[in-house]
Amino acid sequence: MPLRLVDSLTGRNRPVRAAGGGPIALYVCGPTVYDSAHVGHARTYLFFDVARRTLEAEGYAVRHVMNVTDLEDKIDTRAAALGLTSRALARAEERGFFRDLDAFGNLRPTFRPRASAYVPEMIRLGRALERTGRVHRIDGEWRYEAPERREGENFATSADLARHAVAEPGHPFVADVQEARSFVVWKQLAPPLLGWPSPWGRGAPGWHLQCFAMARHLLRVPVDLHGGGRDLVYPHHFAENEIALALRGRPFAPVFLHAGLVLQDGSKMSKSTGNLVPLRTALDRHGAAALRWYLLGRPPRERFPWDDRAADRARDELALLRSTLGAWLRNGRGGAVGGARAMALRNDVRRELLDGLGTDRLVRQLLGFAGAVAAAPGGVGRGERSRARAAIAEIERRIGIRLV
Question: What is the pTM of this model?
Answer without folding.
Answer: 0.94
